[in-house]
From TrEMBL:
<protein>
    <recommendedName>
        <fullName>Flavoprotein domain-containing protein</fullName>
    </recommendedName>
</protein>
<feature type="domain" description="Flavoprotein">
    <location>
        <begin position="19"/>
        <end position="229"/>
    </location>
</feature>
<dbReference type="InterPro" id="IPR036551">
    <property type="entry name" value="Flavin_trans-like"/>
</dbReference>
<dbReference type="Pfam" id="PF02441">
    <property type="entry name" value="Flavoprotein"/>
</dbReference>
<dbReference type="GO" id="GO:0004633">
    <property type="term" value="F:phosphopantothenoylcysteine decarboxylase activity"/>
</dbReference>
<dbReference type="GO" id="GO:0010181">
    <property type="term" value="F:FMN binding"/>
</dbReference>
<dbReference type="GO" id="GO:0015937">
    <property type="term" value="P:coenzyme A biosynthetic process"/>
</dbReference>
<dbReference type="InterPro" id="IPR003382">
    <property type="entry name" value="Flavoprotein"/>
</dbReference>
<comment type="similarity">
    <text>Belongs to the HFCD (homooligomeric flavin containing Cys decarboxylase) superfamily.</text>
</comment>
<keyword id="KW-0173">Coenzyme A biosynthesis</keyword>
<dbReference type="GO" id="GO:0071513">
    <property type="term" value="C:phosphopantothenoylcysteine decarboxylase complex"/>
</dbReference>
Length: 249
């Protein structure tokens, strides 16, 4: 089998497509990711690269129609690739090689992490970068001076890139004081409204998969889609039909 060439953002500068990095971390709400991808398939000017932690990937192994396999998700319209931790180290690095988490950051106009688990929220708030998702977040252009907009493709936050997160966790985890401390960093200290680069879509209250009832469930996936469409200025075409083999650049 031929090994594909290393991914480089510079190979995808043209074409006029909006670039969405759609990530999921270790929460049962990961099963909503296929819904999000399918809903976004109506936009022919959108390219999606999916990032999954190992724990998130465990929820998408073809267990049921609600939990299709990663191979199936890879065939959905607009999905350019699915990236996992192992992709960062496909071969021993040598000088001159591209670095995947840097290239993904350069490529993306918007990073959406839905769901963002309690563990990954803690890692991001503390600046940890021990997997591909958190490495992309840690390498994000927080200053807004490194990654310029591509011609004809406006950036989502007043000329800057950004990270949208939808936390999801057990109610007790959500109400734990350390969660409020970590969330404050993203939702206040680093918020786009204050010149930062994070937008937080807060959880909702419902009966959770674990059986508890209360806050902590991920923001409604349809509203996440709407938020993505709004930030990337995607026009909704309800009557648009896209072939099932539609792929993105």
């Amino acid at each position: 089998m031929n090994t594909p060439p290393p991914f480089k953002a510079s190979d995808h500068l043209n074409g006029g497509k909006h670039h969405l990095l759609l990530a999921a971390t270790g929460s049962v709400a990961t099963i909503k990711l296929p819904n999000i991808v399918s809903a976004l398939s109506q936009h022919p000017n959108l390219s999606i690269r999916i990032l999954l932690t190992d724990s998130a990937a465990a929820f998408l192994q073809g267990q049921s129609p609600e939990q299709p396999s990663l191979a199936h998700i890879a065939t959905l319209p607009n999905v350019a690739a699915i990236h996992r931790d192992a992709d960062e180290w496909r071969k021993p690095w040598v000088r001159g090689d591209s670095i995947l988490h840097i290239e993904l950051r350069r490529w993306a106009d918007l990073l959406v992490i839905a769901p963002l688990s309690a563990n990954s929220l803690a890692k991001i708030a503390l600046g940890m970068s021990d997997n591909l998702v958190t490495s992309v977040v840690r390498a994000w252009d927080a200053t807004g001076v490194l990654d310029a907009a591509r011609e004809g493709v406006p950036l989502p936050y007043e000329g800057r890139k950004g990270i949208m997160v939808a936390p999801a966790m057990n109610t007790a985890m959500w109400h734990h004081p350390v969660t409020a401390e970590h969330l404050r960093r993203l939702a206040e200290d680093w918020a786009v409204e204050k010149g930062g680069w994070f937008e937080v879509l807060r959880p909702i209250e419902k009966e959770l998969a674990c059986g508890d009832t209360g806050s902590g469930a991920m923001h409604d996936w349809k509203l996440i889609v709407a938020a993505i469409e709004r930030r990337l200025r995607l026009i909704v075409h309800n009557d648009l039909e896209i072939g099932t083999n539609g792929k993105a650049g």
